[in-house]
Design goal:
The chain has about 200 residues and is of the alpha/beta class. It has a single domain (about 10-190), classed as Nucleotidyltransferase, domain 5 (2-Layer Sandwich). Helix content is about 35%, strand content about 15%. It has a five-stranded mixed β-sheet, sandwiched between helices. A hairpin with an 8-residue loop joins β1 (about 10-20) and β2. The longest helix is centred in the C-terminal third of the chain and has 24 residues, at about 130-155. The protein is globular and about 55 Å long.
């Protein structure tokens, strides 16, 4: 069972992102403040959960959280400031959208740069340790998957409904065959030589 949050003295928002390693689409970030007594046995790092359980938990989190918010950073912005900075920007935007202002942020990962005047702590693999980060990972992942399914209707040849924009063999072959779309990140490596990695 995950610890609900890192500290209980002040309102804490867990923050995480989804889509950092993708070739296409926005990166999504989420911030979640959970009630201190929040428990759900299915909650875990979203990458370790089935799609069905992620979607079930999304509804639970959005209903029971003290506050939650999701933000997207476009491929154009990713190309402009790089994916790491775009991830930080997305988390800051999500925190700014919360209905309740947190007084502490718990960030998944080993680095964070913030434009916010809120203290924070980074936790490596925090989405497998703290429920508020895990909840943020679920929201970021499910909202991004929903977005990629919509893009797949517009560009069905790239397999985005299934690969969600990640650099699968199918996706790289489609780039070779059909070229890049307006949703591809131009600064990411789309080269065919990468196919030998799969």
């Amino acid at each position: 069972m995950l610890e609900t949050c890192y500290q209980y003295e002040v309102p804490e928002a867990g923050c995480d992102e989804a889509g950092r390693g993708c070739l296409a689409g926005a990166v999504f970030a989420a911030a979640v403040i959970l009630p201190p007594d929040f428990r759900d046995p299915l909650l875990n790092d979203s990458k370790q959960m089935s799609e069905r359980n992620r979607n079930r938990l999304r509804a639970v989190i959005e209903r029971e959280a003290v506050a939650w918010a999701v933000a997207a950073v476009t491929p154009e912005r990713i190309d402009e400031i790089n994916i790491l900075n775009a991830s930080f920007e997305g988390m800051c935007r999500a925190v700014e959208r919360l209905d309740k202002r947190p007084e502490f942020l718990l960030i998944d990962g080993n680095r964070f740069r913030s434009t916010l005047d809120i203290p924070y702590k980074c936790v490596v693999k925090g989405d497998g340790k703290y429920a508020d980060i895990a909840a943020a990972s679920v929201l970021a992942k499910t909202h991004r998957d929903e977005y990629m399914r919509r893009l797949a209707e517009e560009y069905p040849l790239y397999g985005w409904a299934k690969n969600k924009g990640y650099p699968t063999r199918e996706h790289r072959l489609a780039v070779r065959r059909y070229g890049m779309t307006p949703y591809h990140r131009l600064t990411f490596n789309h080269e065919l030589g990468q196919l030998e990695l799969f």
